[in-house]
Design goal:
This is Pitrilysin family protein. About 40% of the residues lie in helices and about 15% in strands. By secondary structure, it is of the alpha+beta class. A hairpin with a 7-residue loop joins strand 21 and strand 22.
């Protein structure tokens, strides 16, 4: 997993009001001092250790930050830090092969790793009974893995990383933008000249000697920070850390790298015809300063001043006035050695990027002339306070932040100073960094345009060079297996490094749920939570896409977008300003079966935020200008999704199962045909019919007492009346497509997206919970058979999973993966055989594995405010008991092997499965025919086409 770590937070939804500078308003109250208590110490071998106790949930997060990222690589060996991260998960001297990827999920835990330009992190969140086992695995990986690496394991992992690159960079629109920008922004000798993922030729050339050299150089104890956070006893934990980590070698001294800002002497403009893009995109990047530099804070605020609201100058010139794109974004990315200030516009279809460039220049000129108000600056700072708390909500996020700040700043408690740093940014600071880093300064610009439309690129842009991988037919040349275990002499240690026993098993206990009812009949569900001074709440209205007219798919989605664009008494800009003055966020979305109006705010601002939610819900503005903008943005999004093979697969898989006579056979966001039929009057009709309290429920989680919440919601009850009709009735068609393979052509695709599934059951079906349990061994997380075989065993994919989708209507059971193109047939055969044999190979061992995964995994699943909102939604939508998770656990404990085999035999039949492949027809269609099933080709809209 490749991730980017930047200072928290960078991209915040800030509200900016228009106009020139006005007299300073009354100073905002100083935020309360934020505290994140921790202990820190250093082992004799140099390992830096931080402990944070949090007993709110019976879980522990362990995070190891190693101070080595892609900036330590050499030209010709790019991508190696990330590749080594992958290798580190495979094996170590004292743990079984695959323990990390398979055993940790079976213990109820989550695990992963990430590499960015400056570092690598390994992390787990586990039920507390597995804490000692995680110390065992993590310490062995850090100190005792290198002797276990074999040539076969290396070659297999090379294929996995190559699949990740194809999936996330080479097989998606705009995936090469970063490569073009970095190689032109930084000179060849600069550590940021290449991307974290690196190049495929470099990855392919990686050798065992490279792995050992990298480990010896950078993976010593003194080059890492270990953070343990959660339900721990600090004194005992210190002893166990010394036991497990104390014998790891110190490693050679790794000298810090000094900041190296990119020093452009001229503007560079590059163009690229993107095989997958359907929309033109223009990106501008200015070189700036490194992380923790004092200027990084006003630069991040500057980004929001330029683009973060409807009154921001670049938004006005690009979106509102010239109507060139649905949006414009800016952000400052500060890294260890240097920083980058980004402006990005993905234009509407066939937009000339010269016009986008001109609009950006006009917007910057307007910023220079009109400036910004103190109120705008204050609103951004208030939003930063909310974001600061929300960004430290989970125990893992706390561990990650403590570790990163310790390793890169030398101060694990730096986050506690950050609110003050944001608050200290002045008007003069913002104007100074604009003049110093942006105004009139050289930059790198990229014009990524659809294939065959180079005329849309900015005039004078030079063609960019991007290495393109050829599709090689057949898997033989890349078909690899992990091979036998390495033969080595085990490193002698003073302490016994055999697997420790489990501690006492924790079980998830449902939090206290309060329920109430408003005078207009709305049921209210709440969970108290006071860990952070934030409250999340939502009004959920039954209907959503399900209530769309059959020939006007997309009405609910358009309505949800429009509802937050002003109210009858507030213009869109005024509503934005009111929300951001509170440091709140309010959004409305349309799902298949609901409209969801959700808000998040500081607890002290609950009442005024609720007042705005009520105003949005009951006083729509019906702003025609905003409707036209959203309508255009919707059409642009529909065109843009043609570039996303995974999205196309999901939309067309639903169409195959539900058919065109069922609303769920049509995408919730609409099609180009359905959206063309929609008018503003359709949105008004939907609102007047379906947005009624009889179809609503309210959910609240956070530091607001029940009495205060009900007092606030009582005003909504008095003002909101009426009943919604029954939802339309649809019949899910009987399946006649089982055993058929459908193929959608994406010319030149480096990977094939595979969907294999059938119509499943409703979430209210008596078998629904049992099906989810029966699926654990097949396709849930990295311990599932799909990932264990397709990724771990074969190296065909970056990941694979399966699930029974939950909804009130019957919903699909589906297995999904994205495999390298020349492994399409082999992957289909594996999935086919796995489904055929699942029932007969599901034994008493799998019963026990499932029981452990689910029972212990539940302790992790409901930690955050939004996760707790999910609990309330499950209760209110499906009428489940207030303690339903505990009741499901009791059901699980009682299930026998015969119960699983009945469920698998009924709901997992391979002969009922529909196969969908989205990939390169020229190389894969004839291969797919060899599966021996009927093959039907579809266009991107799911309509049959002749061969």
């Amino acid at each position: 997993m490749t991730i980017k770590h930047t200072l928290l937070p960078l991209c915040l939804a800030a509200t900016l009001s228009a106009g020139a500078q006005k007299p300073a308003a009354k100073a905002a109250p100083k935020p309360a001092a934020f505290q994140l208590k921790y202990e820190s110490f250093t082992l004799p071998n140099g390992l830096k250790v931080i402990l944070h106790e949090d007993h709110s949930d019976p879980i522990v997060a362990v995070s190891t930050v190693v101070h080595v990222g892609s900036n330590r690589e050499k030209p010709g060996k790019t991508g190696f830090a990330h590749f080594f991260e992958h290798m580190s998960f495979n094996h170590s001297e004292n743990t079984p092969r695959g323990a990390n990827r398979k055993l940790i999920p079976e213990w109820g835990g989550n695990r992963n790793g990430g590499t960015w330009s400056d570092g690598t992190v390994y992390y787990e969140v586990i039920p507390k009974d597995a804490f000692e086992k995680i110390l065992w695995i993590d310490s062995d990986r850090l100190g005792f893995m290198i002797n276990t690496v074999t040539k076969e394991a290396l070659e297999k992992e090379i294929q996995v990383v190559k699949n990740e690159k194809r999936q996330n960079y080479d097989n998606v629109a705009y995936g090469s933008t970063g490569e073009v920008i970095l190689s032109n922004l930084y000179p060849k000798e600069h550590p940021y000249n290449w991307t974290v993922i690196g190049s495929l030729p470099d990855l392919q050339a990686a050798s065992l000697d490279d792995v050992k050299e990298f480990y010896d150089r950078y993976y010593g104890a003194a080059n890492a920070t270990l953070v343990i956070a959660g339900d721990i006893d600090a004194k005992k934990t210190k002893e166990r850390v010394q036991y497990w980590f104390g014998e790891i070698r110190r490693g050679p001294s790794v000298q810090p790298l000094k900041p190296q800002a990119a020093r452009l002497t001229e503007t560079r403009s590059l163009s690229f015809e993107d095989n997958f893009a359907k929309l033109p995109e223009y990106t501008v990047v200015f070189p700036t300063v490194e992380q923790y530099h004092p200027d990084s804070y006003p630069l991040a605020i500057l980004a929001q001043l330029l683009t973060g609201s409807k009154q921001a100058p670049l938004y006005k010139t690009v979106v509102t006035e010239r109507k060139l794109a649905p949006n414009v974004s800016a952000n400052h990315q500060a890294k260890e050695l240097a920083g980058e200030f980004y402006l990005r516009v993905r234009g509407n279809a066939d937009t000339d990027l010269d016009q986008v460039k001109s609009a950006l220049e006009e917007g910057l000129a307007r910023f220079e002339k009109e400036g910004f108000t103190d109120a705008q600056l204050s609103h951004i700072k208030t939003g930063l306070e909310t974001s600061l708390y929300s960004g430290l909500e989970s125990i893992l996020s706390k561990a990650q932040r403590l570790g990163r700040d310790n390793e890169f700043k030398g101060d694990p408690g730096y986050v506690m100073k950050e609110a003050g740093l944001w608050q200290g940014v002045t008007r003069a600071d913002v104007l100074r960094v604009y003049n110093q880093y942006i105004k009139g300064k050289p930059y790198v610009a990229t014009s990524f345009v659809p294939k065959g439309k180079i005329d849309l690129a900015v005039n004078g842009a030079k063609p960019a060079t991007v290495w393109t991988e050829p599709i090689v037919q057949g898997v033989a040349n890349e078909d690899v297996a992990p091979g036998a275990d390495a033969v080595f002499t085990k490193t002698k240690t003073k302490n016994d490094r055999s697997e420790p026993a489990f501690g006492e098993m924790p079980l998830f206990r449902m939090p206290a749920v309060w329920t109430d009812k408003l005078p207009n009949g709305i049921k209210v569900y709440g969970i108290p939570s006071s860990e952070i001074p934030v409250v999340n709440f939502e009004v959920v209205i039954r209907g959503g896409h399900f209530a769309d007219p059959l020939d006007k798919s997309g009405v609910a989605a358009l309505l949800a977008s429009l509802m937050t664009q002003g109210t009858a008494g507030k213009t869109p800009a005024e509503l934005e300003a009111a929300i951001d003055a509170l440091g709140a966020s309010i959004s409305m979305t349309a799902t298949n079966e609901e409209l969801r109006l959700r808000a998040s705010c500081l607890s002290r601002n609950f009442m005024p935020t609720l007042a705005l939610v009520q105003e949005i819900l009951l006083q729509p503005r019906w702003d025609k200008t905003e409707y036209d903008r959203i309508y255009t943005a919707t059409k642009t999004a529909i065109k843009g999704r043609e570039a996303n093979a995974t999205v196309l697969a999901g939309i067309n898989f639903n169409k195959l199962l539900y058919g065109t006579g069922h609303i769920l056979g049509h995408p919730a966001g609409g099609t180009k045909e359905s959206v063309a039929r929609i008018t503003l009057d359709d949105l008004k009709a939907y609102y007047s019919t379906w947005v009624k309290p009889s179809a609503a429920s309210i959910h609240l989680v956070g530091a607001v007492p029940q009495a205060d919440a009900m007092k606030g919601f009582s005003g909504l009850a008095l003002a909101w009346q009426g009943s919604a009709p029954a939802l339309p009735a649809y019949t899910v068609p009987a399946s006649d497509k089982g055993g058929t393979v459908y193929f959608i052509d994406i010319p030149g695709a480096k990977q094939s997206v595979l969907y294999v599934g059938k119509m499943g059951v409703s979430a209210t079906d008596p078998d629904a919970t049992g099906i989810s349990f029966a699926n654990e061994v097949l396709g849930v997380n990295s311990s599932g058979r799909l990932t264990q075989v397709l990724r771990i065993g074969k190296g065909y994919t970056y990941g694979a999973s399966s699930q029974q989708v939950r909804s009130a209507e019957r919903a699909p059971f589906v297995a999904v993966t994205s495999v390298r193109a020349n492994a399409t047939l082999a992957s289909l055969q594996i999935i086919q055989d796995m489904l055929r044999d699942y029932g007969t190979t599901f034994t008493e061992k799998e019963v026990e594995v499932t029981r452990n995964k689910v029972l212990k995994g539940s302790t992790l699943d409901y930690e955050t405010l939004n996760a707790k909102l999910g609990l309330l939604n499950e209760i209110s939508k499906y009428g489940r008991p207030l303690r339903y998770v505990e009741e499901d656990q009791q059901q699980l404990v009682k299930m026998k092997l015969a119960d699983y085999q009945r469920l698998i035999g009924t709901h997992f039949k391979e002969s009922d499965m529909v196969y969908l492949v989205v990939g390169d027809k020229a190389t894969q269609l004839e291969e797919v025919r060899k599966l021996g099933k009927k093959v039907v080709q579809l266009d991107v809209d799911g309509n049959p086409v002749s061969f």
